[in-house]
Fold these 4 entries.
Entry 1:
Amino acid sequence: MKRLSVYKFIFVLALTFSQVAFSQDVNFETTLKYIQNEKPTKYEVIDSIFGSFERDSTKMKLALKTFRADDYNEGICFSLNALGIINRNISNYDQSIALHKEAKAYAEKAENIELKIISINMIGVAYRRMDLIKPALDNHTEALKIAYSVINPSETIENSIAVSQNSIGNIYLALKQYDYAIIQFKKSLEIESKANNKLGLAINYHNIGYAKEALGDLDTALANYEKSLSYNNEIDSEIGRVICYNSIGGIYLKQKNYEDAEPIINEALDRALKVEDKFYIASSYVNLGQLEIELNQLETAEKNLKKAYDIATNYNLRSSIAQSCKLLSKLSQKNNDYKSSLDYYKKAVEIENTILTEQNLQYVNDIAIEYENEDKNNQIKALASENEAVRLRLERNRKILWTSLLGLAILSIVLIIINRNKALKRDKRILTLEQDMLRNQMNPHFIFNSLNSIKLYIINNEKENAVYYLNKFSKLIRKILMASKEKESSLEDEIETMKLYMNIENIRFSNQIDFKIHVDNSINTDVIKVPSLVLQPFLENALWHGLSSKPNDKKVELNILKTSANYITVEIIDNGIGRKASAEIKESKKLKRNSVGIDITKARLANFSESFANSYSLEIEDLYENDQPSGTKVILKIPIKKIK
């Protein structure tokens, strides 16, 4: 800090004794010459002297040319990063990444760890803006690793750590793991608060607001957006204002407060067009289109949503493409154009699942897993194709009915149209359900935590355990993906998969769980069919809500009985702390994770039961011993007698 003060003092003197009527260009030339002579190596020194010009591409290009001629590596790196940010802010992401990568090379040549960390973080930010999650996460993780290796980090490195944590939080947002995202943002916020970095504070408060909005806490989200806006106003950040106006307008939309939403969304669009940032221009058009749909201004809504779609497509902004497609699907449905509605919806789902697949690649590192992820994508596409085939058959049948029933009364025609629309909505619901099932089964945190547990065996040189559990893990992943190809599987396969699942989860419980399976001899497990992976959510609940807070003597029983000719009965019994105590623990936690696994399973069981004479039933009993909670018992009856 002492050296920085000396640099500032010398530079102020140089400007003071220069001519008073210096123009901006002369000031730039004087500053450039000063840096040329002094060649400072610390980022904070370069930025404090030269930072006021870093948004001017013409001046930065001239500086780059000058520093190249002087072979001044730190100056070259600073100029390249400034040009990379300029290109990123006008959505020239490929050029931005190329400039930041070149900056990284010069930082390495100068052996300047501060500039290297900054360059790597900037590469990650550009990839994240393109929704390319894997390279974004790779770069931010690398930057964080290098920063933490520094024994006495400077303020610049501390700030870089905050940038990395903020960006990793944004990646958790894309993964829809909002509680984990908030943890990262708060870590970043703590660093930015100590440094009184108002830009960093503005960014983190906005991101926390986004996560809170996704969790449904609109009031807290709005408070965070407004706090972010106040910081952006303090530092006069126009792009920051655009972001906050869009987000505040989005909250008003969800609150159905259209009167307040309209002026702020229009203001966001006007400002976005002035700063020429395509990412936020597309976001503003999406918000405006959504508002116009709610106000039933369908023609202008379609124009604005198509503008958003075209901009997002031209600049490969995939999350914006997905948002605009979802709203165009809703708009087409309002216009009774169900074919276009389904096409737009499929496009949105395809893009969202592509992003999620790329995120999952971070947690695996061999060709087999990459293949199986690709196979998962193929299944999602196959479901979409199946839905399209159903839609075409329904359309063909509809035409036949119109031809053959031309003479029927108007009431009959109306009833037929209603039935057709209900069938389309049902098929769309089934498609969405199957896609949710695929995403839930390939939970990235389960994969990541399982691999971490296996990694501990490797670190502790427990090779046999590592190989044993790695084989189990690979079999489980393969079985999950193979089971995902079918809507139902044999009871035998389901039992085998649950054994593997419990085996893997037991690693994280230090193998303390006593898991037993009992199957009635009268049951032919090879013949009986059940929905694929239907038991996993119940076993997961037994582990994480019943047994995770219990210190020892952890037991889980899986009993499969035949109580009648129409059903098999599945009992899952744990000796955990009971539902009441589990709910109290969950309520006391600051971070709450909303599980949708059981809801998805119920919907799948209801869909599965439509082919059977009887429906499924589900009961959950609290077990007591001496008037004290002694566990939970899940009783699931699955029908086995099909409709003839």
Entry 2:
Amino acid sequence: MTNRHDDAQGPLSRRELAALALGGAAMVAGSGSVAAQTAAAVRAPAIEPTRLVSAGETLRPEIVGNFGIVAAGRHYAVAAGNRILLAGGNATDAGVAATLAAAVTEISHFGFGGEAPTIIYDAKTKKVSVVNGQGTAPGLATPDKFAAEGVIPGNGPNGGTIPAVVDAMALALQLNGTMTLSQVMETAIDLADGFVMYNFLAEVFVSQQKATSKYKSAYDTYYPGGKLPKTGEIFRQPNLARTLRIIAEADRSTFARTSDRRAAIQAGRDAFYKGDIARRIGAAMEADGGLMRYDDLARYAGKVEAPAMVSVFGHEVCKAGFWSQGPALLMALNIAEAAGIAAMTPGSEIYLHTLAESIKLAFDDRNMFFGDPDFGTVPGKGLLSKAYAAERARQIAPMASLQHRFGNPWAHEGRPRTTPQFVPHMLKRNGGPSADTTAIEVVDKDGNLFSCTPSSGWLLGGAYIAGDTGVPMSNRLTIFDLDPASPNVIAPYKRPRTTLTPSIVLKHGAPYLAIGTPGGDNQDQQIMNVLLRVLIHDQPLQAAIEAPRINSNHFHGSFAVKKDEPGVLEIEDRVPADVRAGLTARGHKLDVLGPFGVSTGIVAVGVVPGPGTLRGGADVRRERYVMGW
């Protein structure tokens, strides 16, 4: 039905239309006689609320509040975090609870034996800290162990680094939490006893049944009696529940005896790494031909570190160190700033070209220079310097580069190169697939921020569980290189240069944003897509998350065979056709995806400058969730 507002009396005001919609024949204040009101009602039928369109409308609402907000991969994790906030916990307490719940319910993307790099902003001390949360290679892991295959597998008993989740969450609680480990584990234990299977995970079980059948302990866990879990059924993990209870009881009993929260957390943590759980993991791995042993778990200890940070577009962006890909985001932001992207229209041809070329330059340097700083010297000062960014920005030409271009950050440190020359390359051997990731972001009423990017599920390649522990093991070993010249070459007790990359943003030192996403090599690219719109143009958070994206496949990937696709740029088809044509004319090899087709799942929460209220957003590209008040 067409609204006829164009007669001699003119259109009705928004207030009059709303009143008519709500009141029908009720009188509209200030509209004249009853006859006039009746005539107005005839010419302007009531607008249904569902037909109203607001400025900047998004597919999902931006969540706002002043108490706390949790954004994560599944509703189970969000609920776990919100339960802790309601119980009086802070952002770190809630973030740890959400992470542990995700380890139970998002097992296609993240398992309890995986890793969980985390960044925390402490509102009291106004300090940002990194919990490294990335496990190391086992003591027996050397390049020669994989020489015959020519590639490190992405799944199975030799796919994993030392489990880091329990250690990382214990460190986070000791650093900034207020609750005990057993308190924040309650929801995870309940979910391990049984949660309602959801459709996405049920479909993963269907696709991975054959691959998982290679490993009896995993098959018996996920396909009890050889049956597929079905959507809507209760799915139980009794072995994992038992493992979780052992950890929680060690924490609980120690706290009851000592009233020392930190000591109790440590006792719970040690029950996993130094007790019977670790012995059973080590024995199972050895029996299945893996390299991990009990001693690897017993000696493992993560640590708290200072973040890598740059000031860009009037904000301070904080990431994990050069053992992660996180600094590549900082470099790409620096380069884009130096190239003048702040003056460009978001989503325009020149804007997307500059964004893509900045990413390519930064990620080529990632592959050339990044590695565990405990095992070599990384030119971090040079890589993050504004002078180096300006030098790299001058390499952005009107045409897309189809070559890998590596810089010389050593020159910006005033010293010669100190590592062997390494040229990233694709392996000739075929490698096994890798799995996926999730993300947890929390803000509380005091402005504490928690950002965690947990990973090591089995979306591809099948699950592997260590014996009867119920613990699915990591698959992060495949990120290492086998080339001895690489700063990321595999070595005993070394951290791989992980793709996992939590983020915290400050504005003039005040808490502003916690943001993360799954997506492997895509993670920091997708975060950059969103951050540019928020930091430069102050776009609403949810609108920035839903805006059309690009993603470069130009540089060598992190997993298995380290594939590269020079010049290839994924682009969502909501980018206007004329912009896509312009990018093609510039030499970009466009891979046009569906309207929300980039493989990502941004979640973000933060503090609104000025009023100090809270906000959160969640991507529509995957089944992401956000809730709070």
Entry 3:
Amino acid sequence: MSPDAVHHQDNSIILSDSNLLKTHTIILDQGDPEEKRQEILDYFHKTFSLYETLFECLKDDNAFYARANSLRHPLIFYYGHTAVFFINKLNVAKFIDTRIDATLESTLAIGVDEMSWDDLNENNYDWPTPKKVKAYRDKVRTLVDHFIRSCEITLPIKQTDPLWVIMMGIEHERIHLETSAVLVRELPLDQLRPHRFWSKICQSSGIAPENDLLPVSGGKLTLGKGQSNKHFGWDNEYGSYETKVEDFKASKYLVSNQEYFDFVKDNGYARENFWTEEGWKWVSYRKAEAPVYWVKHSGEYKYRTMLEVIPMPWDWPVDINYLEAKAFCNWKSKKTGRSIRLPTEAEWYQLRALEPKDQSTWNSAPGNINLEQDMSPCPVNKNEFAQGFFDIIGNVWQWTETAIDGYEGFAVHPIYDDFSTPTFDGKHNVFKGGCWISTGNYALKDSRYAFRRHFFQYSGLRYVEAPELPTTEVNMYETDDIVAQYIEFHYGEEYFNVPNFPVVCAKICIENTKQARRERALDLGCATGRASFELAKTYDHVDAIDFSARLIQAPSALQQKGTQRYTIHDEGELVSYKEISLDDFDGYTHIKNKIDFMQGDACNLPSKYKDYDLVFAGNLIDRLYDPKKFITSIKDRIRSGGYLILTSPYTWLEEFTERNNWLGGFKANTGENYTTLDGLGDALAPEFELASQPVDVPFVIRETKRKYQHTLAELSIWKKIS
């Protein structure tokens, strides 16, 4: 244990204030294993103690239950949440099978940090007392201390190792150190009290410097990091994304309160044209007239720090959400006649390249970050970096235009599988650079955090002059049960040694139509499109049509973006996150443009769908509202010598098809069995003949981890002879 740590009589561990504030996140691939163990042990205790000091700012027990923010839990939740996290994740990883307090480990497990700005949460919870939570935290500290001292350790520490889970808990607590500090800032002042170091805010303020735009050279860069990176990282940091950044200009300073005040004075909060649709709804709902931490007294604005209200520090950076930052940039563009916007994540990295140091190795922070300077923001012209820029990192976070998404190769960490994926929805924007209270992973260059655009953190902006950005779409996870099942059925794993159904069908189609032309094919009822891709390897063009627009969105996204994400159910509410890529399938990238995915009704297709050498209708006919009409109309859409290939399990159900429209599966007037194959032969004659004996093709559809549909479809091949 650190020499600055002492045991308290209640068995908690107290560290001196001087040993709490300045820390570096751990380098996980260097040094002696036992020295690394001790380093992680010290890092844990410092983090655990530092977090507890934040709650010393609350005046009394009642403050723990006050709703600082209607979209968040009261602070009593966050007081215990980070300790609960250690126990829950160690159990999930099966490194321990111990519970300290199962009730608390459930009640304090899941937060409400990702709600919409108008989604008021008024649930009542049976919260524990602060005394009970503190006693629980002390027990967790003892357990984790023992675990760190006794678990196996080898270097480098990998994502499957016990100490990786410990690092996850530590860095998780450092996230909440910052987010909880924001909640403390939102409490009424009469519920707070001064603190021996959280009250040590910057004492310097004055007239804000005039901002300017300075050049930044562009270039090619690759974002993301490899699995061998020396630091602990969250899942969204891994993978790679190659891009090119054009030369641009960036503001010399972060936007100060003074510079932002010009927007406020110009009635910016009342002028809809400066705001996005989402932003204007937020402004109207909140009736906002200025930044939330500007407090009006006697007609003048003052500034709310975490623990007090002070005269407005006009040269400190403004604290705002993305919606306000975006509106300010739109206003600035209008005023200056220049293309002003927020930087992209890649543009920020190009600027960040001017600062070679990173938190784990610097001797002292180059800016107001890592709790190494002030317990608040400070003047925007205090910390100078290279080429005349200030606050490249630190002071306040810098919003970007980038909606967070996983890099290529992204994979969730199984111990915390919902850390990033809920934010891949196009509604969470990345911010970069850290702020004065950013520590641990938060303060590293490679860290990636994103919040909803209405979210308040210690966040502001640096603007850039650069061309407008094209509209981009985030590759979100498909969560619709049926769609996800079909994606897995077409592109996912093979279950119970049953080969991939659409691939087998496409292979049969191609092998049994060698005498026909290979110009045009129609995949009717294509669902999520796997057979369409397979047919496009052989045919010059494939039309792929399905009645469900939801189903064809998946292959369309795969065709356009190259990847598609989806979730599949395991049990109850538990899911697995999966991603497919065109590159995973042989030849698909080269033939993707040979396919047109369209929504359509198989019984009522437009006249342009004709002259096909092959029509494949997989598992379609027994789900049509009028299969007889389909058979009649499809005959004229196939060229002479072409083929119609059908598969179906013949599960005729009146919920899909009226009884009198069934093609078979009933007793004929003669009293004999009349199969669907009989009906197809009669309906297709005399233009078509059965080209070969039908075959059964099995398929398996996964519903959950332990429930599957195992079905046999009959495949029949019909050749057009006239």
Entry 4:
Amino acid sequence: MTTPHDPHPHPLSPVYHSPPPVLSVPFDPRPPEAPAEEPGVDLKGYLNTLYDSRWLIGSITAFITVVAVLYALVAKPVYEANLMIHVEEESPTASKNILSEASSLFETKKAAIAEMELLRSRMVVSRAVDNLQLYVQVQPKYFPVAGSWIANQNSGALSRPGLFGHGGFVWGGEKAVVSVFEVPDSWLNREFIITARPGNRYRFSGGGQRIAFDATVGHRYRVRTPDGLVEIKVDRLHANPGARFRIKRNSRLGTIQAIQNAMVITEQGKQSGVIEVKLQGENAERINALLSEIGREYMRQNLARKTEEAEKSLAFLNQQLPILKRQLEQSEDRYNQFRNAHGTVDLREEARMSLTQAAAARTRRMELVQKKAELLSRFTEDHPVVAAINRQRREVDEEIEAIDTRIRKLPVMEQDEARLTRDIKVKTDLYTALSNTAQQLRLISVGRVSNVRLVDAPMAPERPIKPNRPLIVALAVITGLFLGTLIAFTRKAMRGGIDDPAKVERLLRAKVVYASIPHSVNEDKLMRKVRGDGVLPLLAQILPEDPAVESLRSFRAALQFSMPHFRNNIVMFAGPTRGVGKSFVTVNFAAVMAASGKRVLLIDADFRSGRLHRYFGVARDNGLSKAINGSTPLDDIIHHNVIDNLDFIPTGSMPPNRSDFLLHANFSSLLETMSANYDLVLIDMAPLLLAADALVVGARAGAVFLLARARVTTDAEITESVKRLNHAGLSPQGVLFNNITYGIGRSHTQFQAGPIGQLKYAE
């Protein structure tokens, strides 16, 4: 019998024909048993997923950040102006007690709420819109996206209009002022063009209408169209000839509603009565002027509302005072005539008292008449207050009637004197009272102070509040990191790739992982230097101390320990799918075995996408397919000593029926011949789940090894591969777990062979 250290064991010795080990990897349809203890959160797995996807996350973050930076540079600045108004209580001197203070906790200041709505009302906003003509919108025609930003960098200087002389785009501080622009209703919200011309002239056109005319700056023009009259006056045009401006006549109602929606009105603090109005816009001067106009119009409306009542009462009194004055003068004339005719009469005490009572009653009656007249300016006849005045007046009339009846009993002369005296007194008292009232109302009209006051007038903002460039960039970085992380975990979840060799052993319930091969950064660097169809780098020859090569040396020791129990020295490598690194593992393991002094033959039997010939710089055409069909002798297809102790057979030209082609009898005889001439024959096969080639060749191999790639190969692919091999009567010897990343939270675990079919861990 031969030993694993015998350099030239006879391939047909009884050792190679012993039965396959019973502890190879048979497929078990039962679901894998759960481990005794599952960790709650696989933090190391999460960190490794992030590490593996670092370039993806970095690329997404960089892309979003670049887009955000571009947006922050070209976005139009937004300014904000504000004003503050204080609404005072109507009765600030009202008495306070415990009950009133407690009730203030639950009451809301209806005055402040009402004033907030009045600030937003059309009564106030429409006056500001009309005064500033905000429905006329004029702005330079900038180049899309970046034109406005470029213009802001030119510090107000005039530019050469157009892009390569076309388009009329402006790139500097061009400006146009239009004081009058009226169009038919059907042309509202349409965009027209004003083009600057030499000689302080311009051309008006656009709007989707067949209208175009030349005009002079500073003159008002009226042009009749089939839809109506167009009226325009351009007060100032600061631009070079050829520069274009966009002009639009918006709907008045639409402009008012847009401003109402843009205004943000809030009460500062709880029931403070302090109202703040904010307005944002792209033009700092425009929003400052608009907010100032709104504040002035609101204050004017509020003061007019407060003095309206006093002005109405004063107007009524101004009409009544001349009438009362004439009546008083007539009464004085009649009394003087009576005294001149009859002389002075000494009235008795009763007559004096009656006259006093009558005068007092009539005075009350006139006061009631005056009060009723004042109330009728605010209330109707049916109002309870007016009804009460009428009732008091009837009572006074009854009292006057009673006094008159008593006076009629006096002598006629005394009655006449009493009547004349009474008329004078009544009219004098009434005229004096109304004069005093009128004077008070005049003072109120002149000195009336509104209960609202403008605390902070709006000021033109100096710096924009948007865009906040540092915040945009910071949010873009955070968003990019979040999206990149989300995509990384989503990709991992969709792929379902296994990232830990221990999961493979739990899946198959056996110690089957012969080696875990780490990801090689050096291989990545070498592959990036390859151009086109050039020679691929052989890592085991260029950098033999690379960790990936070291792991293959560990697998070499395990394979040499197990090979005496294989039925021949033919070893086949196969993966479930493409992209698991099968070619990399096969060719580098062949180089590692050859470096140990063994005579190794490497066969590329992947008739689907074999490329091992590129590692040695040889042609593919003269290869295995020609030897199988008998057109070329075996010795002619072998490339001897591609490296020391390593011979190589490429695939040859691709046959049409590849799986059937491998069933040819010549292939079995070729394998027997090659097995007898070499210490180890390595065969690289097509993926198991894509073709049946590996099942055909595996029946002639002494050992079959599956390749799995970290984060790529899934549970289902491994179990399906084992299932197909078992159905073909094959039991894979073990699994090579490729491309493990030891970036974060992992130790480099090597697997060493123990007894036949058993593995033990060595940290």
